[in-house]
Amino acid sequence: MEKNKVVKVALVGNPNTGKTSLFNQLTGLNQQVGNYPGITVDKKQGKCKISENLSAEITDLPGTYSINPSTLDETIVLETLLNKNNSSFPDLVVVVAEVENLKRNLLLFSQIKDLQIPTILVINMKDQMQRKGISIDIIKLKEELKSEIILISARKKLGIEDLKGELVNYKNWDTSTIANISDRIDATFFKNLKKEFSGFSLYKSWLLITQKNYCSFLSEAQLNKINKFTSDEALINKYQHKETIYRYQKINEILKKTYIVDKTKATDFRSKLDRILTHKIFGYVIFAFVLLLIFQSIFAWATFPMELIDGFFAKLAVVTNNNLPEGTFSNLISEGVIPGIGGVLIFIPQITILFIFISILEETGYMSRVVFLMDKIMRQFGMGGKSIIPLISGTACAIPAIMASRNISSWRERLITILVIPFTTCSARLPVYTILISIIIPQKYVLGIFNLQGLTLMGLYFLGFTAAILSAVLLNFVLKVKHKSLFAIEMPNYKLPSVKNIFYTVVEKVKAFIYGAGTIILAISIVLWFLASNGLHNFKNAEQIVTEQTSNQTISKEEIHKKIASYKLENSYIGMMGKTIEPVIKPMGYDWKIGIALISSFAAREVFVGALATIYNVESDSTTTTTIKQRMDSEINPITGEKRFNFATGVSLLLFYAFAMQCMGTLAIVKRETKTWKWPILQLTGMSTLAYIISVLSYTFLH
Amino acid sequence: MGDTIASLRIGECGVIENFSLDAIPLKLLEMGCLPGQVVKLEQVAPFKDPLYISVNGSYLAIRIETANKINITKL
Prior knowledge:
Chain A is α/β, with parallel strands linked by helices. Helix content of chain A is 60%, strand content 9%. Chain B is mainly beta.
């Protein structure tokens, strides 16, 4: 054998079989997530050394019950296994099955085996066999299935070396078929099929006929040939049903000879737990409690690390600024790049905590129970039970939330979910809400116990959810997208979560956030920095102009510095932009300075506070202890002589931030997930128009 | 006569009858919902939708519209 040969291995299996655990065991941190060309489903790949001079490139294909796809994820399995030109077309396939659901798992195995690619069966959770009273005659089963079988326990690391040892021999594996589909369904039909498509295995030709709409790699000529052979959908459908029934019969025959379950050993742990967790009342109470716990943790535990990150980057900016020679480059680094990176990293604690919780809920099997409980309710709003996970995630950040919508099999339900997620109150809105509320809402108590400011914040959260639900109802009414898909979810066994799996999931999500959203936030921060620190004639000569203007006044050097800084800002590109949009935002009760903050916060909402801080240049003022809040509070509207941030303007701003779509990262991720600019543009225009109208109305009404 | 999975009560079982092939989605068949198999209603969500069933070793949740289409003989 030549040295350092690489074989391509595809991992296939039903969901909840421990396929991902096996993948993590084989590859460790040696994995990466890429994209399949043209589609948005993540492709998980990893490398693993299986012998002295043979290593494997392993692709973890999405979990599926059958090779016939019903969700976007499952299409990948079909594409990868049928298209020889696909870059991940495997040299061998590892089918992962679980010992308890072997029968159903063997359906998928029999389909893949019939493709006549070298295939091995891995039966996971062998450590559970004794407890569950299951015994398998492996030798006999090998013979019946005409393939190698390895028993493993992915979580307990049992059998992994045996598997590697067997993979080396893949060229000697039996590649004959298990189910002889032709005789049992329609001998003549399949005989003709075989004659017509002589280059392929019979089952592959059959799949090309049944799944032609999912095989994007087929050429026009091939499609024509298939359609010429038969386009009788009813007949195809009938034969597919017959094929499945036949496969199950065959599997039953085999298992009768090889698989014994001692029913007396069965425990009813599962049904006991189900009776509580899916109970009509307790089920919802428990779910509400779990939600409360998640929210509490996100806000309580994340605050400290977020402050650390914030403080670190603020200090880093100062240190860099002091140590680099003065100039544009130094400014770019300390005022553009460093705050930009800080603005990305600050979200990591919340995202990490959120995904630790979500992956625990998924690993234990509880999430399926939540989907079961919430399905009917969510359907009233055009979504489904599976929409609940993305909506919860949205309170941390819309970006991972939108990515979490992928396992919703109905495209319609998924699209509505994606479109309404940005209404939920994400953590980036919090700093804006906090400061505005503290200015316009008095620190009073209602009924003696409820803090009025706290109530307002809660009201804004509620407003966000209501907006999401109402817009879902509206979309449900208007959207023409039709996609009938079956709702059938498996209720997996309860399991203890594996720390390893949770760790890898969290790492994967955080990485995806940094690369996906992070790069955009960083880029926008740099653009904003440029726009704020450059301008035309007046900007360049700011120092001279201000000095001339103030020459007959007696003011301190510091005051002059501040005046220069504000004059510069007013005449920078972004100041010019703020002034340009002033007529438009006036009906909302804003001036050009708030306008700058609005434009800046288009990249990310939390920039609002920082931008106002820059504008009122509080940070450069080191002698007095004016905070940004005090400075905002004392800002006067020159026309009316009233406070700039009075009640009407404050409410108008709060409502604007509640409804407006001000997040480049979200728009980019929606584009990626929906594959068209149509939906992000709809979100941007729809949400911003709504926000504008509501702000204008509230200001006019309150003013 | 005319019983479907939707007419089971919690804890009751039935045998799936031969169904007209195009009424049932292929995916349900593939998940183990086959004629001749015993199906048990494990649990229902409020308003009896979705239904949580066990059949052929699989535990599934299906919506009532699907359950209505699968004829059974009660045991």
